[in-house]
Structures are given as C-alpha cells and as structure tokens.
Amino acid sequence: MDFLIMLAEGFMKLFQTGADTFVSWMKGIVPVVLLLIVAMNTLIQIIGEERINRLARASTKSPLLRYMVLPFLGSFMLGNPMALSLGRFLPEKYKPSYYAAGAYFCHTSNGLFPHINPGELFIFLGIAAGIETLGFNTAELAVRYLLVGLVMNFFAGWITDFTTKVVEKQQGITLKTEMKAHH
C-alpha cells in the first residue's frame, strides 16, 4: 500500500512541478516572447512586406546571402515555421539548401531571440539552466550559440547544394537556377 501511495504522490509531484514551471514562464518568458512577436509584426508592417520579399529575391544571387542572411532575417522577422516560406523566392535548385539552413536558424537563434521558436525554447532553457548552475552567463551562451549557428547553418545550406547536385545527377534531372518574375 505504501508503494501505491508513494507512486500517486510522485505522479502528482510531476504535474505540480510542471505547473510551477508553467507559472514561472507566464511571469518571465511568455510576456517577453509576446512583446517580441508584436515588435516583429510591427517592424514588418513598417518596412513593408513587398520590401521584405524583394530582399529575399535579391539574396538568391549569393550563397552567403541565401544561407546566412536570408534565413537569419526570415527567422528573426517571421519566426518558425514562417521563416521557411521565404524559400519560395528561390529557384528550385536552392530550395532544399535554404530549408536546411533556415530550419537550423529557427533553433540556433532562439537563445537571443526567443520569439523565433517559442515551442522549442525549452531546449535552450534547459541548457541555460545548467550554465547558470555552473555560475556562467546565459547571455554569453546565447551569443555564442547564435554565432556558431550563423557559420554552421550556412555550411548546412551550402553542403546541401552539393548533395542536391549529386541527386540531380543520380536522378538524371536538372533543377532550375532561374526564377521567373511573378507580378
């Protein structure tokens, strides 16, 4: 009988801990994420969606712009999963690579900009809790995560360009490298 009581208490403790964590997020990270989302939507409205779309189209000309700048801006301004929608401005040949880079940016930028991917913020917060326990600064962790992410995410996109060429050759197809203008 004691075992069943201990099991029931442990079960309830699990949910109480979850509730405590949820309440702490409601006092801390949730208002920050909400305000960041409002700020980003305001910025998009001020800049104008068409200007953002033109930037996306212009960035297709360079791998650095395609796989470093565009995914970062998309993640920062649109968040996950909408950041991936900017890939629609890329020729078919570059879409797999953009997705590879863009999907990673939604994770590696999350430490500094939690509005990008609030659904997976728990990963960064878990690592940050360990860093705080060790007495280190979590802002430094977030900056390092972002900087390493910028480089590694670029390489993820660029390497995917090479694997796309291999698949094209294997399948006997050639993906388009030019975009037709849609007005």
TrEMBL record:
Read off the Pfam families from this record. EII-GUT
InterPro entries in the record: PTS_IID_sorb
**Record key words, sorted:** Membrane, Transmembrane, Transmembrane helix
Q: Name one GO biological process term.
A: phosphoenolpyruvate-dependent sugar phosphotransferase system
Q: Where are the transmembrane segments?
A: 22-44, 64-84, 142-160
One GO term describing the cellular component: membrane
The protein in question is named: PTS system glucitol/sorbitol-specific IIC component
Record organism:
Brevibacillus fulvus
